[in-house]
């Protein structure tokens, strides 16, 4: 009896602590428009929750202790909290309409949920409402309207975003997460923008942290973070379909208008509020922008002599003409005839994204998730060459356990480059398949270049029958006899053969690389109580395999392990008006010393709505696997990673001249020969212009940043955001070009060896090799910026927003050849104006962007600058809602005035896209 009584009492005690609670209720809008379907009801600080049906009704089962709080939210409405005190309580919630949420909740700035007004660092958010009303062709295009955001377009299906300078077309300094999963491709080591990732129909929000975020997110977040969150299938249920069709290439002389189509589908369903799933499918297809700037960018020709008649012509978007030779006598340097990009690149681009996720609530406080993402597409990428990422595949598997105070996540990211290739190399290999000698016999590819130049020389000097001597045009025509013409079977066969030939003997790019990642964090605040305490860690393991096409890994397998951990403490003082936070993170890559990255911040709240912030942050970035181990031949130059083992035995770091000094050496020798010296005399007289390179192996780059800002809400109608930052950079990773002669660089006297100088001037494969080496900047540089943004809620639902950013780069005493380039406009502005329901279910949105001109430096043009002209563009859309059919009709366009703009030098100019879209969203409950 005593035992039975004990168990009865224990059972009663347990039920007093935790009992089955079943509550029901209705959610409606305060304006009386309708019951709110798909409103979210969640137990505060738990994972359990439900959604309302089409009539606004809900039922929620919860096994817990009374009282507790439920949080009720819906898109476009204020969040409401209701205390539950009875096991059978009926709830009637009325949500207040907000045309725009000025006080959004963000989670990326401190890795916990907090008001955007009280964020310790600058953070921008694109809410679900903003995503739906985005006027640009895709959500990703609309990111450029956020304050401080920069964008460069290489392709319709590939846009890259960045913040606070040092922009590139392949940005490995800016972290992009989708549901916590790093969206980078393992072989390229940067996110390929909008080619992969989430479908527009499945994105719930996007948060951007401009500037260093390494203290909480590790080495990749050196320049900032874009964190995309997709829709929870428990909260966002039902069927959504988007059909979008449009046109680009409007008003172009070189191409007729082409269709561009985008289809997306999403379906989500919950069962008993315990199990839910979602599936997504999207497919975008169109004709890419053309890169057809034929400006002569020859690095060894005086500006006055450049142009289509220049024998040494090296046109920006013509490939194969980089191959040159100095022909003796009065002929000079001559380049081979190249092929235009349109004949080499696959401009039929597409992006296929498939996604499925299973969510199961193991308890009221633990949810298990499995998610699979498959992406396949084609895009053009501007790197050291123009690369065709053709049928590229990226897959991710994610498993996660999460609760209100923790998450533990593991995922794997794998790639398959399929038919990807390098267009510059492709042109050069095609050029070596058809050359005939003076007797009319086709020579072997390894003799083709020398034979072509021999034909040119013979024709120019009058040794070829029927050819006008001393004519560069006639000599080129003679040397090009037998040339494969684009579109012919011979051209296409040679092209296909080189694309599927990987490594140094072909243009194909092969990668089956992957990486494994595990990270987690726990909020100890409720246990510690004295401070808000958060801790977490991560581990990553790269497994690289390119079969020799990007890395020297046919025999030598390349794997890299890195790990990190952080702790963050926060404390509120002065009646909760002041919040101080401090965090520190330690990261270690197996090939480099470990790095500590601290962050300190403070936010002072005045009169509830006015918040002043200051922070000191540090950042660092480990050299990526590409930075360390790439070994890629792109025709006249070999790109070589900076890990010591990668160049062992090649004598490059030890025995080479700087390309800058060689650039000065060539014209000096030419001028001396023109003045009557023999080549040998001219070389001997000018050899000391050459400078032996002193390139260091790679190591992590470092950043220190200070920021102050203000964010305030005035009369619940005006949001003001101001910030200033100053950052200093050391050990910046960059590329430098060197030339390795066959002879020793220095003689026994310690001066430049005449034989090495002769090797350089000869510019023949057997005498000189050109390398692009990864290394670190030796000098310190700094950047500073000022941004201001304002959002104003006008009457009748109109919303006006604007922001402006000043970005300033201070090179100081640094050598411009030894630093990473800023690649950022000094001034940029955005203005948005819209109304979701201007009149009778009609809405509209406008977005205007302008930025100033600046110089772009990139490996595509051999680190020589090219001008990015100032430009402005307008995106716009009008829409009509059909509530009865759960459908919205959109008519809009990106860059509607069709100004053909270039955003990075060597990339295509982008024009307008005009589109019409049908969006069907049917809530299900």
UniProtKB/TrEMBL annotation:
Q: Which domain of life is it from?
A: Bacteria
GO CC terms on record? Answer: cell outer membrane
Q: Where is the TonB-dependent receptor plug domain?
A: 117-224
Position of the signal peptide? 1-18
In terms of one coarse class, where is the protein primarily found? Answer: membrane
**What membrane topology is annotated for this entry?**
Multi-pass membrane protein
What sequence ranges are listed for the domain TonB-dependent receptor-like beta-barrel? 447-896
Sorted keywords for this record are: Cell outer membrane, Membrane, Receptor, Signal, TonB box, Transmembrane, Transmembrane beta strand, Transport
Subcellular location field:
Cell outer membrane
Gene Ontology terms for molecular function: siderophore uptake transmembrane transporter activity
User: What GO terms describe the biological role, i.e. biological process, of this protein?
Assistant: siderophore transmembrane transport
- Which protein family is it in? Belongs to the TonB-dependent receptor family.
Please state what the protein is called. TonB-dependent receptor
């Amino acid at each position: 009896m005593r035992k039975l009584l004990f168990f009865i009492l224990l059972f009663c005690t347990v039920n007093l602590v935790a009992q089955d609670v079943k509550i029901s209720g209705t959610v409606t809008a305060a304006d009386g428009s309708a019951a709110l379907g798909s409103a979210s009801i969640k137990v505060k600080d738990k994972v359990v929750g439900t959604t309302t049906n089409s009539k606004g009704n809900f039922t929620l089962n919860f096994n817990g202790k009374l009282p507790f709080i439920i949080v009720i939210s819906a898109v476009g409405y204020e969040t409401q909290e209701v205390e539950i005190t009875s096991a059978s309580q009926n709830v009637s919630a009325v949500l207040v309409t907000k045309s725009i949420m000025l006080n959004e909740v963000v989670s990326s700035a401190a890795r916990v949920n907090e008001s955007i007004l009280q964020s310790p660092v600058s953070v921008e958010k694109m809410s679900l409402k903003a995503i739906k009303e985005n006027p640009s062709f895709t959500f990703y295009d609309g990111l450029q309207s956020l304050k401080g955001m920069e964008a460069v377009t290489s392709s319709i299906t590939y846009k890259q975003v960045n913040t606070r300078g040092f922009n590139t077309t392949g940005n490995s300094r800016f972290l992009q997460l989708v549901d916590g999963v790093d969206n980078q491709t393992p072989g390229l080591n940067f996110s390929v923008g909008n080619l992969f990732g989430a479908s527009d129909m499945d994105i719930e929000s996007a948060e951007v942290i401009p500037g260093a975020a390494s203290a909480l997110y590790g080495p990749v977040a050196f320049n900032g973070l874009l964190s995309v969150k997709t829709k929870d299938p428990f909260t966002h249920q039902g069927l959504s379909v988007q059909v979008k069709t449009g046109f680009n290439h409007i008003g172009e002389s070189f191409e007729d208008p082409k269709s561009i189509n985008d289809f997306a589908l999403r379906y989500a369903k919950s069962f008993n509020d315990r199990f839910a799933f979602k599936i997504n499918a999207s497919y975008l297809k169109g004709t890419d922008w053309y890169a057809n700037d034929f400006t002569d960018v020859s690095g060894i020709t005086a500006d006055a002599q450049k142009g289509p008649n220049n024998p040494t012509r090296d046109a920006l978007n013509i490939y194969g003409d980089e191959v040159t030779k100095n022909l003796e006598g009065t002929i000079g340097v001559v380049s081979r005839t190249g092929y235009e990009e349109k004949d080499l690149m696959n401009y039929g681009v597409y992006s296929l994204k498939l996604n499925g996720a299973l969510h199961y609530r193991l308890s009221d406080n633990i949810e298990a998730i499995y998610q699979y993402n498959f992406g396949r597409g084609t895009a053009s990428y501007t790197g050291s060459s123009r690369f065709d990422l053709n049928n590229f595949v990226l897959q991710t598997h994610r498993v996660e356990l999460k609760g209100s105070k923790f998450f533990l996540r593991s995922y794997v990211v794998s790639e398959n480059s399929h038919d990807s290739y390098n267009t510059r190399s492709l042109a050069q290999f095609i050029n070596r398949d058809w050359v005939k000698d003076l007797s009319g016999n086709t020579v072997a590819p390894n003799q083709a270049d020398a034979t072509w130049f021999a034909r040119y020389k013979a024709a120019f000097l009058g040794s070829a029958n029927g050819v006008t001597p001393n004519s560069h045009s006639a000599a080129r025509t003679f040397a090009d006899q037998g040339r494969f013409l684009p579109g012919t079977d011979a051209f296409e066969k040679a092209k296909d053969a080189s694309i599927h030939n990987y490594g140094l003997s072909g243009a194909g790019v092969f990668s089956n690389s992957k990486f494994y990642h595990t990270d987690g964090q726990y909020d100890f605040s409720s246990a510690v109580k004295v401070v808000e305490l958060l801790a977490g860690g991560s581990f990553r393991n790269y497994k690289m395999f390119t079969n020799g096409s990007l890395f020297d890994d046919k025999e030598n397998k390349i794997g890299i392990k890195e790990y990190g951990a952080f702790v963050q403490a926060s404390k509120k003082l002065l009646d909760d008006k002041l919040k101080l936070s401090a965090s520190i993170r330690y990261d270690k890559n197996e090939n480099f010393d470990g790095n500590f990255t601290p962050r300190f911040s403070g936010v002072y709240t005045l009169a509830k709505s006015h918040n002043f912030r200051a922070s000191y942050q540090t950042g660092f970035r480990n050299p990526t696997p590409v930075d360390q181990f790439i070994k890629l031949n792109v025709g006249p130059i070999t790109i070589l990673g900076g890990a010591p083992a990668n160049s062992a035995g090649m004598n490059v770091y030890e025995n080479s001249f700087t390309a800058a000094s060689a650039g000065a050496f060539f014209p000096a020798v030419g001028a001396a020969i023109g003045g009557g010296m023999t080549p040998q005399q001219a070389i001997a007289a000018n050899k000391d212009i050459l400078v032996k390179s002193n390139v260091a192996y790679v190591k992590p780059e470092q950043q220190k940043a200070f920021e102050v800002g203000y964010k305030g809400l005035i009369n619940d109608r005006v949001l003001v955001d101001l910030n200033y930052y100053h950052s200093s950079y050391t050990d910046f990773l960059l590329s430098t070009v060197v030339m390795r002669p066959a002879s020793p660089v220095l003689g026994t006297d310690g001066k430049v060896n005449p034989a090495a100088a002769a090797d350089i001037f000869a510019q023949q494969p057997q005498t000189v090799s050109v390398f692009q080496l990864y290394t670190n900047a030796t000098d310190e540089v700094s950047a500073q910026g000022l941004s201001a943004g304002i959002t104003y809620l006008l009457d009748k639902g109109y919303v006006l927003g604007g922001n402006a950013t000043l970005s300033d780069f201070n090179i100081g005493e640094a050598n411009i050849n030894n630093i990473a380039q800023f690649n950022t406009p000094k001034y940029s502005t955005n203005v948005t104006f819209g109304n979701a329901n201007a009149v009778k279910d009609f809405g509209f949105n406008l977005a205007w962007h302008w930025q100033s001109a600046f110089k772009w430096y990139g490996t595509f043009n051999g680190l020589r600058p090219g001008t990015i002209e100032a430009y402005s563009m307008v995106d716009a859309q009008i829409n009509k809602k059909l509530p009865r059919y759960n459908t919205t009709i959109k008519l809009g366009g990106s860059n509607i005035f069709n100004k053909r703009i270039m955003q990075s030098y060597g990339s295509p100019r982008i024009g307008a896209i005009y589109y019409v879209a049908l969006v069907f969203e049917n809530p299900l409950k």
